[in-house]
Amino acid sequence: MFACLAPAQPQQFAGRRIVGIQFSPAAPLDPADLEKVLPLKKGDVLRPQDVARAIDGLFATGHFDDIVVEAEPSDGGVIVRFVTKNTWFVGGVSVDGDVSNDPNRGQVASTAQLSLGAPFRDEDLNRAQQNIRHLLESNGLYEGNVAPNIERDDKDQLAFISFQVKTGKRAKYDMPVISGETKLPDQTILKATGWRLPLIHWWRQVTDARTRKGVQGVQNKYGQQDRLLARVELQKLEYDKQRRRVRPNLNINAGPKVQVKAVETKVSKRILRRYVPVFQQRAVDNDLLVLGERNLRDYFQSQGYYDVEVDFRVQPPQNDLETIEYVISRGQRFKLVQVSITGNKYFDEETVRERMFMAPAGFIHLRHGRYSEAFRRKDEENISNLYRANGFRDVKVTSTIDRNYRGKAGDIAVTVVIEEGPQWFVDNLAIRGVSQLPLGDITPALATAPGQPFSEVNLAADREVILTDYYSHGFPAASFNANWQPSTAPHHVNVVYRVAEGDRQFVRNVLTSGLRTTRPSLVNKLITLKAADPLSPIEQTSIQKRFYDLGIFARVDTAIENPDGQTDHKNVLYHFEEANRYTISLGVGAQVARFGTPNTADLSAPGGTTGFSPEFSLTASRLNFLGIGHMVTLRGLYSSLEQRGSLSYLQPRFRSVEGRNITYTILYDKSLNVRTFASRREEASVQISQIFSKSLTGLFRFSYRRVSVSNVVIPVLLVPQLLQPVRLGILATNLVQDRRDNSGDPHKGIYNTADVGVSGKVFGSQRSFARVLLRNATYYKVGRNMVLARQTQFGIIQPFAAPANISAEQSVPLPERFFAGGADSLRAFPYNQAGPRDTGAALVPGGPSSQPTGFPLGGNALFINNVELRFPFIGENIQGVFFHDMGNVFTSIGKMSFRFNQKNQQDFDYTVHAVGFGVRYRTPIGPIRGDLAYSINPPSFIGFKGTPAELLQCNPNQTVGLPSFCQPTSQSISHFQFFFSIGQTF
Q: How far is CA 60 from CA 131, 153, 944, in A?
């Protein structure tokens, strides 16, 4: 017979010995947590107060919704049974069905408001359904249906909720109902919404984003009419089920026009809109007007009007117009010619200036300097903070202004005076309360230490260090307190850190859900948290980042199950939403420059001609191939200069090593950007990349390819040894060291690459040569705003075991030689026009010579040096560049020369120089640049004006009877070169 132990009858089994404790169903707690919260022990005497404490402790764990205690006599004692109703927790939310965009799956899942790991009750499901239906309707999906499904995991108390969504057809907008005092025609308001296509007057489909954008469009329309106080309210959306149309109801109060103008000083409307916040906030109140007054004062001071006075006045509304006048008295325009710093002993002047906004006038940039009262106050504050962070607690920073500096009217100088005061030091540091972690692992990372400068900044930094260390070792409730007292020595202190560790938490299990095509083994390899490990939120989020780095998940949620429950062992949850497996992207671009496209109909311009090359690209990828995180990518590129297609297979984390990837590639490429010939390459390669450190990456590859030439414009190249396709097997390695602060627009750092490869018979090659290409680039800041950038490239191709009847130099296939010239290498030349040219000499030893054409042939050695001085030019987004390029492509390493002058028109083994000026316009995708180069000593050469058919009729060994078109013509590379492209040169 069972009896219920309740507070009303605690004495019924009181005093009996407990012979058994049971849970129905089985307790979901970790045994260690159960033992901690359960005061009842087998063999103890049953006491009602212990039962009450047990119930309270079990409820505090958060794992139970209801608890009933029963008792049953047994063998002279009593069996205590806890009959429980366990709490369910959200194990994951997934969305199935025809859901794509507006809304997408992530929006639907978020709208459900079911947080991973949080308690879940059935009424939460009804609320989630209503939220999702509202989301669908706001996006015009009134016929949508949401069917929830719940799968429960009794063992881990997890409920997995999936929503099957059927969206149905999307409704379209209908003529809105417009009410209120609009002061604009309905058609103007309708056009501002963008809900109907212009001209054809077709109504667009309803989406929540489009609805909000339409309301904002109306608001902006009133803003254009200077009605800053206009209010546009979307009252409701009426749905016509029969016509599948949505009629928005707009209530509009246009309000009066608000005119903001400047008096006494002419100020453009653009400046007023930028600095007076009533335009952004669409409200007129005194706080916004005062802020506008301050902003305008700072603006004029930054333009050199340091004595400017700004005030405002609001005129009463008249005739539907409210006027706000800013009275601006600019005063004399000044020029900040000097900013000097005195009193600094601990820090050098450069360190102090790095914290300052004020800057003296420059020749081009900041023509009047940069100064305002706000800047001056901010600089004083920044310098004070710098000193205080290094122990100067009593530092005082002031500044004075010297007008008519050195007797010149309008020139001013600012002197920043630093009174450092004494530096405070730490005598002793005591850390108390640390018992469960090794103190020796904490102290080395602290900024506060005996003998070091003392500052509150260091105390705050140490707090972050200590608490982060505790959190990462499973102490979520750890707290920190810092105190200090003056020491016996002047300006010395004793510091005491007190740590309250709290209870330590551990990982019970790591549970994953949501995987469909991804193999669990791939995910499990990246989970470094294991059962019984300290529960580290830092490691938990680090694992989440690794999952995102795979690139195969659209969303990865992580949480702790039952986070508020008073237990020391908790489950860590990861729920995945897999990304779309197929992605397709299209690209369109163009190049404008002097190109070297082969022209078999005309040989008169071997240096290339100015042209326009449109470019189209296609990339199609299959993510998470075979469910193991691999990727298959198909790429295509088509332009008038190049046609390329490739198929690659990427295997990331090869052999489970982070940062090691292997790629298999099949490539076809046809390039037309060399005047002499078009190269064609068919290649299969395998490449292993390894990240050795943050700045160092290695690439190791073996490629086997077939290279050939076509569109040959020099008939002498019809010799079989030069025209026949060549098979090459190349083993190469490439090391990249990147320590630039910004790879797109670096200001400091270094960038080094080394590319070494060898082609030989042992790899199945028909030609044998070794290739080395080295690059070194450095970036230095000059002053505050300029950057000195330089780059040096050196390359050599050394042939060996050349085939019979062909020289070693000519044994290197044309597509494998060095070519240079253009916006990204040597701006003294058009694209790929540097180096040796056709002089009509015999290419085959002992063979006949031919009529010279002057077309580029490439070379086996390369040297290029670029130097750029980059500086602010106009405003903050336009940069100017002075540059000097020097170098060339040489016949061989033995013929490399740094001579300035060309010996004759057959000499191309000398160094060509170019100077120039460029402009860079900063954009989110990188700087857009235009460069104008002047080649100081461009090469001249003997060319041919005519067609290939006419060239064949010319025999340079024949002295009489040659047609008139066989007369060689002297040609040269133009002194001026212009380039337009995206990105810095290097």
A: 31, 22, 94
Quote the domain boundaries for residue 972: 586-982
**Residue pair 618/586 in contact by the 8 Å Cβ criterion:** yes
What integer pLDDT is reported at residue 911 of this predicted model?
A: 95
Count the domains in the chain: 8
Asked if 953 and 838 sit in the same domain, the reply is: yes
Do 828 and 733 lie in one domain? The reply is yes
Could you tell me whether strands 77-86 and 18-24 are parallel, antiparallel, or unpaired per DSSP bridges? parallel
Phi and psi (nearest 5°) for 207?
-135, 155
Residue 807: phi and psi, rounded to 5, are: -70, 160
- Report yes or no: 174 and 240 within 8 Å, Cβ to Cβ: yes
Token code pair at residue 68: 């009933």
- For residue 820, the Cα-to-chain-centroid distance in whole angstroms is 31
Q: How confident is the model at residue 841 (pLDDT cuts 50, 70, 90)?
A: low
Q: What is the pLDDT of residues 849-886, one digit of tens each?
A: 566 777 888 899 999 999 999 988 887 788 999 999 99
Would the pLDDT of 85 be above 80? yes
b/e map of 233-257 (b: 16 or more CB within 10 Å)? eeeebebeeeebbbebebbbbbbbb
Neighbouring residues of 386: CB distance < 8 A, sequence distance ≥ 6 = 347, 351, 352, 355
**Residue at 251: amino acid letter:** N
Domain boundary among 374, 392, 419: 419
Per-residue pLDDT, 678: 72
Share of the chain above pLDDT 90, in %: 57
CATH code for position 374: 3.10.20.310
Q: What is the structure's pLDDT at 10?
A: 43
Same domain, 429 and 441: yes
C-alpha 270/C-alpha 260 separation (Å) is 11
Tokens of 56: 């309270």
Same domain, 514 and 527: yes
pLDDT tens digits along 101-115: 889 888 999 999 999
Per-residue tokens: 524: 């499990």
DSSP letter (8 states) at residue 837? B
**Which residues, in sequence order, are bridge partners of residue 81?**
22, 70
In this structure, the answer to whether residues 355 and 314 fall within a common structural domain is: no
| pLDDT at residue 4 is higher than 70 | no
With 0.85 as the threshold, say if the pTM is over it: no
- Let me know whether 965 and 916 are in one domain: yes
Task: Mark whether 278 and 365 lie in a shared domain.
Answer: no
**Local structure of residue 728 (DSSP, 8 states):** E
Nearest Cα neighbor of 967 from 957, 956, 976 is: 956
| DSSP code string of 805-816 | TS-TGGGS-GGG
Q: Are residues 626 and 696 in the same domain?
A: yes
Return the closest-CA partner of residue 478 out of 509, 442, 528: 442
Q: Which of 329, 354, 385 is the endpoint of a domain?
A: 329
Lowest-confidence range among 165-174, 355-364, 383-392, 750-759? Answer: 355-364
Helices (H), 810-964: 948-952
